[in-house]
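Appendix B: a complete holo record

For completeness, this appendix reproduces one full record from the ligand-bound portion of the collection. The bound molecule is acetyl coenzyme *A. The inputs are the chain sequence and the ligand SMILES; the output is the full three-dimensional arrangement of the complex, encoded as structure tokens. No fields have been trimmed.
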Amino acid sequence: MTAELRQLDQSEWEQWYATLERAFGGVAEAPEERQLWDDLTECERSIGAWDDGVCVGTAGAFSFRVTVPGGALLDTAGVTMVGVAATHRRRGLLRAMMRRQLDDVRERGEAVAVLTASEPAIYGRFGYGTASYSLRLEIDTTRVRLAVPPGTDEVRLRYAVPAEAGPACEAVYARRVAGRPGMLARRPGWERLITLDPPGERNGASPQQCVLAERDGEVVGYALFAVKPEWDARGPKGTVRVQDVEALDPAAYAALWRFLCDIDLTSTVLALNRPVDDPVVQLVSDVRRCDLRSRDSLYVRLVDVGAALEARTYQAPVDVVLDVEDAFCPWNEGRWRLVGDPKGASCKRVDADGTPADLALSVRELGSAYLGGVPLAQLAGAGRVRELRQGALAEASLAFGSASAPWLPHGF
Ligand SMILES: CC(=O)SCCNC(=O)CCNC(=O)[C@H](O)C(C)(C)COP(=O)(O)OP(=O)(O)OC[C@H]1O[C@@H](n2cnc3c(N)ncnc32)[C@H](O)[C@@H]1OP(=O)(O)O
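The structure of the chain with acetyl coenzyme *A bound, as generated:
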């Protein structure tokens, strides 16, 4: 590898970002989207790889706060904007940037790093495990009805201008964050991502629309969506594309989904990113006509195993010794005793005192299980977790679970 790695300087951002765009195919983003990423880039934690004055590699990280099981917000590195020029691929540049980045994350005292992967095969070697899934629904609204709970008819819905409704939507979102692992507490500036609506990316759909749900004059939910009109010889068959729906109670949530499913001249509601346990699945009359599909979403890497496992709670009492393998971050290797319950946890090294291990696994499996969305028992069934003490797997698998499935509400 001939390239030199160094921290990004703001003056280099254009060239750096153009390298990233080209790694993703070379289609330039809309100016407003580019500007947003320019504003959100944290140069002091972004890396450029340079070969003879030319940028050939990029990697960045955002300073996130992510909800973990139990509701705590954990300072987390949101790894992003990774690209290597095709002229320099497969020479170890990604590996070198991952090395530097994870060392930096550790120095900053962040116990966890997260990312979404362009391809699932890339990041396991660096200790990232698939920790959450997203649900895609395509509801045939000509056939599917919604069985709404009492109180739904009392929720008042009204259209609002998305940009003007932003603060009210953000307030609802902020109240939802602690209830679901994987959700991000949005720092100032990130609300712009939610209402970003470049005309060139609408693919024939309307500009973004917003409907607020209100009770007693208070905003208790919102839906952001677009409508793509379509007609054929038999009449209208438009699609409602759901971008975001959040609500503070079941009646408001049902009112918003009923609204989305009832818009005249449309016959499909398409939502690409919902939690896998989204209550809407229990509202619909015919789940088969919702064409549910799930796919990998958030990847988690424990950078400091002890601190990360202590930061969350456990839904049942657990006392296990984990033998952790971590070739890329060897400071995590060894035996850790985790004692936890719904109130809190401690996780300490026990290498010195000869305590035998109950479960053996790599840091990648711990990352998968961390947010409660991937059972340790499932990983064990694939041979990726080994039970060394009978009963330890069932105990740990139950404890690591979460009442709400983890979910990443938007990309980054
Ligand atoms: C968080 C994010 O931003 S995800 C976005 C990632 N970026 C992209 O997908 C853009 C297009 N692709 C690229 O820019 C590059 O091909 C990258 C960044 C994926 C890889 O960069 P490279 O410098 O070629 O990777 P590097 O040479 O360091 O490879 C390290 C290891 O990853 C493997 N690897 C690299 N890319 C891939 C891939 N796409 N699929 C599977 N394995 C991969 C290599 O084979 C190598 O394996 P090894 O550990 O067994 O030796």
